[in-house]
Write a structure and sequence with these properties.
This protein is of the alpha/beta class. It contains six helices and 15 strands. The strands form three sheets. A seven-stranded mixed sheet has the order 10-9-8-7-11-12-15, with helices on both faces. It has a six-stranded antiparallel barrel with strand order 1-2-5-4-3-6. Strand 7, helix 2 and strand 8 form a beta-alpha-beta unit.
């Protein structure tokens, strides 16, 4: 993906499905005359509805799936922008800037990928699982507070992903944190790699576990963003050796050693 391929386009909302847990699945239909978007798992878009001035800025969302002129996005409602997006009716127009950012590394032969998703952080990892070749050695560890937070569990199972669920209240899968599931699997039984997305405390714990066991780890960050293209510096994260990195340009996927969480 080169910056020159990135474009601002007007898309149509094809469908808007309630997934429960305060989440919606938006399917966007891209204009037919556009060349196909070459989106990779871990990349994101800046998205805005046709709602007047407030909020002015688009919001960032990882791509959940892409193909045949369509993009799917998972939206968890947390504030005004996501509430407005969640309320858009099929057929309405949306402005989409993308695809943006650095994706997850591609699957590597002979290396097991452990995908660790917390709540609405499932989006880019679901996409990674969908895109991996059939028979790829990967497992998806998916955790939330309760079963209602695991809004893509049924889809992930239907897509044939090897799925392990856990919830803090024990209402789905095993009781505990997703990092408990990860700890059980980082057993040194072969080459492994961890790819994670979720709340920052979860990512910190994942990075610490991987660091202690010497396992390669990549994290997809959801820092607040204003522009998505390197202009505002609102998405800066500290680098361990000093200085800053932009989540939108240098991430959103970082190797764990590249950022201080
Ligand atoms: C690269 C990237 C990918 C993302 N992917 C997804 C995704 O797939 N699905 C999804 O639902 N969300 C995703 N997000 C988060 C999403 O962009 C925010 O939830 C959204 O911008 C909030 O907008 P709002 O107007 O509803 O909330 P605001 O009114 O702006 O804020 C409401 C509350 O949410 C907090 N908040 C705002 N932005 C963020 C953020 N980025 N992370 C955590 N808290 C925030 C604010 O501090 C405030 O407390 C992603 C963010 C980034 C940067
Ligand atoms: S969001 Fe503006 S520089 Fe990254």
């Amino acid at each position: 993906m080169t910056p020159s391929q990135t474009s601002f386009v007007t898309a149509r909302l094809g469908s808007n499905e309630d997934l429960g847990g305060g989440c919606r699945l938006l399917a966007l239909v891209l204009p037919e005359q556009l060349p196909a978007w070459d989106v990779e798992p871990g990349q994101f878009v800046m998205l805005r509805g046709d709602w007047g001035l407030h909020p002015l800025l688009p919001r960032a969302f990882s791509v959940l799936s892409a193909g045949s002129g369509r993009l799917e996005i998972l939206v968890k409602v947390v504030g005004r922008g996501t509430r407005l997006l969640a309320g858009q009716a099929p057929g309405s127009t949306m402005t989409v800037l993308g695809p943006l950012g650095r994706p997850f590394p591609a699957p590597a032969s002979g290396v097991k990928d452990l995908l660790v998703a917390g709540g609405s952080g499932i989006g880019p990892l679901f996409f990674y699982g969908l895109r991996a070749a059939p028979g790829s050695d990967l497992e998806l560890l998916y955790g939330g507070r309760s079963g209602g937070d695991l809004v893509l569990a049924a889809r992930a199972a239907a897509a044939g992903l090897r799925l392990h669920l856990c919830t803090e209240d024990g209402s789905a899968g095993s009781r505990g944190m997703v990092t408990d599931l990860l700890g059980e699997r980082l057993d040194g039984s072969g080459p492994m790699r961890v790819l994670a997305c979720g709340p920052t405390p979860m990512l910190r714990a994942v990075v610490e576990l991987c660091g202690a066991r010497g396992v390669e780890c990549w994290v997809s960050l959801e820092t607040e963003m204003a522009c998505g293209v390197g202009l505002c510096r609102g998405c800066s994260v500290a680098h361990p050796e000093g200085g800053w990195r932009c989540t939108c340009l240098d991430g959103a996927v970082f190797r764990a050693e590249e950022v201080l969480l």
